[in-house]
Specification:
By secondary structure, the chain is α/β, with parallel strands linked by helices. The protein has 4 domains: 90 residues, Rossmann fold (3-Layer(aba) Sandwich), CATH 3.40.50; 33 residues; 55 residues, no CATH class; 67 residues, Tetrapyrrole methylase, N-terminal domain (Cobalt-precorrin-4 Transmethylase, domain 1, 3-Layer(aba) Sandwich), CATH 3.40.1010. It contains 10 helices and 10 strands. It has a 4-stranded parallel sheet with strand order 2-1-3-4, sandwiched between helices. Strand 5 and strand 6 form a beta hairpin. It is globular, with a radius of gyration of 23 Å. The model has no long low-confidence stretch (mean pLDDT 91).
Length: 258
């Protein structure tokens, strides 16, 4: 990855936004939407303890000078339309509160990020945020039903997968949370699943293989399998090169061979 994607909480905190006109105003609105306090003076923002600075002057020399001063004061800097001067970039945002999807290109093309976001807008149902809120509200009950983290994760994966009872791309999933929790559908599946690859191209993974990788608690793999395929697994999934001789991890274990 060229950038590390993070969601930064700025509610109630000062954020510097420098500049006037069409490039600066969208950044002000963005900061205000996230609950931040917009500060239009660099030194005032530094004195107030700001951690982020958006710089959008029309004059490039002013942008460069303020970027240097802000960075020397320990701030992370975004210079609008100058990715070479940015410590971070702002993605195109799709919001279904509390779900927030950010589409970024590491500054390569804001237009491409926007078009991808617009395509995703058409795919996500309006009640996606309601589904997220209900799952959050019922976290305690979900934990009571599946005390082990691995079982809990698998139960949610089964319910939220394509065609599952709580499929997030299906209308009305938010209305089925109670029924899912009260019933047997979505019970955890653990154990060991093994498959053999016929190609080292990640685009050749079957839908089943990609789904198993994405939900596995541990991946046991042939050492020759490239990172491009292993990275399709969860970021927190355990990885072991074969032969694995230790005690096999709990939860769903996927074994990949060539």
């Amino acid at each position: 990855m060229r950038s590390l994607p993070l969601f930064h909480r700025i509610a109630g905190t000062p954020v510097i936004v420098l500049g006037e006109g069409g490039m600066a105003e969208p950044k002000r609105r963005l900061v205000e939407r996230a609950g931040g306090e917009v500060i239009a003076d660099l030194q005032e923002g530094i004195d107030k303890g700001a951690r982020l600075a958006f710089i959008a002057h029309d004059d490039e020399a002013m942008c460069e000078g303020d970027a240097i001063r802000a960075r020397c004061a320990g701030l992370l800097v975004n210079v609008v339309d100058r990715p070479d001067l940015c410590d971070f970039t702002t993605p195109s945002l799709l919001e279904r509160d509390p779900v927030l999807i950010a589409v970024g290109t590491s500054g390569a093309s804001a237009g491409l990020a926007k078009q991808l976001r617009l395509r995703l807008e058409a795919l996500l149902p309006a009640d996606l945020g309601t589904l997220a809120s209900k799952l959050s509200d019922m976290r305690g009950r979900i934990k009571d039903k599946w005390p082990a983290m691995a079982d809990r994760r698998q139960a949610l994966d089964n319910a939220l997968t394509s065609g599952g009872m709580l499929d997030p791309l299906a209308e009305g999933s938010a209305d089925r949370v109670e029924s899912w929790l009260a019933g047997e559908t979505g019970e955890a599946t653990s154990g060991r699943v093994e498959f053999t690859l016929t190609s080292l191209d990640p685009e050749d993974l079957t839908l089943r293989q990609a789904r198993l990788l994405g939900s596995a608690d541990a991946v046991l793999h042939d050492p020759a399998i490239p990172a491009a395929i292993l990275d399709r697994s969860r970021a927190d999934a355990l990885r072991f090169a074969l032969p694995f001789e230790g005690r096999e991890p709990e939860g769903l274990v996927v074994v990949i061979r060539l």
